[in-house]
Structures are given as C-alpha cells and as structure tokens.
C-alpha cells in the first residue's frame, strides 16, 4: 500500500515545492495560437488564389508580401465584434497606366453578418527589373502586373457609418 503525505501549511511552504518563479528571461517570447496560425494560413492562401484566378495568373507578388498582409488583416480584425469572420476584404491594384483595378472581393464567413470592410490596395512596382523587362518585350506576350512590397490596408466599420451597410 502506498503512503500519502498530506501537506499542511506548517510542514512546508508552497514556494519551496514549486521553486522560484520564472523571470522574463526564462519565458518564451511569444506562444503561437494554433487557431490564429491556421486562420493566417487559410487567409493568405485564399487571397492569393482569388487574386491569381481573377488576374489569370498574370500577377507577380514580392516574396513575403502576402504573409505581411495576412498578419495585418488578422491584427485589424482582432478588435471587431465578429473578428475575422465578420470581415469583407476587397483587393485593389493601383497602376499609374491602368488606374485602379479590383482584383478580388472576399467574405470570410458567408453566414456571419459583416461588421467591417478592409480594402487592400496593392501598388504597382515600376522600378522592378521584371517590369522593365516586360516593357521591352511587351509585344511578345501578355502583360504581367508586378506588385510593390508597399501596400495600404484601409478599414471601415459598418456599425460606425450606417450608409456603408449597403455595400455587400
């Protein structure tokens, strides 16, 4: 039969049992939330798929742009009543020659009421080597849209301005 020792306040101190409390140096900087990581990956993939589908794969993104955009979108949706699920995202491409083109419109959750609108404005990159080469060989093929690493992400809350509720 095993013996069980019951601790009483007189016998030992709780800090003796647990040891010293961890200091800030001992803590992990940031613990990743698996739900947020999953949402980030789905959002990034969905934005890329929608844009590529609507541009017939004629767009070139900088390497980490979509990662930054997905992180920024999740950060802006954090404070909303329905979070990311209440988001409507428009993706727009601004080009000095072509003007402003709407590339995609996405709703995170079709069953959730929309609480906020995000407009992602991707900028053209006229200084890219790919753009310069495309100008030289423009007659050889279809024109590619080259996206700059800079972008704008604008947020509009539907519940702040009732006139915007008509946008769907």
Can you give a write-up of this model?
- The chain is an alpha/beta fold and 168 residues long.
- 28% of the residues lie in helices and 25% in strands.
- It has helices at 14-18, 34-54, 65-77, 129-136; strands spanning 59-60, 87-95, 99-107, 116-124, 145-157.
- It has a 5-stranded mixed beta sheet.
- Strand 2 and strand 3 (99-107) form a beta hairpin.
- Helix 2 crosses helix 3.
- The longest helix has 21 residues, at 34-54.
- The protein is elongated and about 60 Å long.
Reported for the largest beta sheet, the result is: 5 strands, mixed
* Low-confidence sequence ranges: 162-168
Overall geometric form = elongated
Mean pLDDT: 76
Distance between the termini: 70 Å
Order of helices and strands: HHEHEEEHE
Strand-helix topology:
Layout: H1 14-18, H2 34-54, E1 59-60, H3 65-77, E2 87-95, E3 99-107, E4 116-124, H4 129-136, E5 145-157
Explain briefly what this protein structure is.
The protein is of the alpha/beta class and 168 residues long. The protein has 4 helices and 5 strands. The protein has a 5-stranded mixed sheet with strand order 1-5-4-2-3.
Entry keywords:
168 residues; alpha/beta; 5-stranded mixed β-sheet; 4 helices; 5 strands; 25% strand; elongated
């Amino acid at each position: 039969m095993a013996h069980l020792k019951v601790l009483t306040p007189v016998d030992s101190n709780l800090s003796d049992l647990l040891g010293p409390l961890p200091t800030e140096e001992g803590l992990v900087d940031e613990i990743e939330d698996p739900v947020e990581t999953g949402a980030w990956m789905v959002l990034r993939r969905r934005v890329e798929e929608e844009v590529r589908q609507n541009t017939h794969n004629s767009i070139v993104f900088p390497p980490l742009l979509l990662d930054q955009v997905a992180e920024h979108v999740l950060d802006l949706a954090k404070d909303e009543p329905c979070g990311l699920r209440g988001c409507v995202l428009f993706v727009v491409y601004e080009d000095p020659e072509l003007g402003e083109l709407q590339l995609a419109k996405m709703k995170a959750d079709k069953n959730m009421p929309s609480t906020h609108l995000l407009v992602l404005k991707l900028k053209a990159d006229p200084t890219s080597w790919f753009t310069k080469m495309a100008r030289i060989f423009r007659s050889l093929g279809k024109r590619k849209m080259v996206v700059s690493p800079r972008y704008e992400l604008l947020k509009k809350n539907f519940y702040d301005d009732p006139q915007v509720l008509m946008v769907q």
